[in-house]
């Protein structure tokens, strides 16, 4: 009788151990599934942040390239405006020079006309 009770107790103990082992395995499996689900959920956010960062980097490169191109164009425009301004100054200088020559020619013409009139009006000239 005592030995049958011991055997029965040992059988119950073995059954409980088996049940506990099964429940432990189920618990570990559920914990792994939960961990995997949480990691997957976090990875979606991280992946989205990574994609957004890549897009921002690409846009920043395009913006930088656009700024460089704009700077080059601005330098070209400034050079053209400077050349145009210089050409206008030269035209102004030429115009001033032409006026000066014209005034000198008028003075010479007036002087020659007066000299001619003076010599023509003098008695004793032909």
From TrEMBL:
One of its GO terms (biological process) is endosomal transport. It holds the Pfam family GCN5L1. InterPro entries: BLOC1S1. It comes from the Eukaryota. Residues 1-11 have a biased composition (Basic and acidic residues). GO terms for cellular component: BLOC-1 complex. Residues 1-24 are annotated as: Disordered. Belongs to the BLOC1S1 family. This is Biogenesis of lysosome-related organelles complex 1 subunit 1.
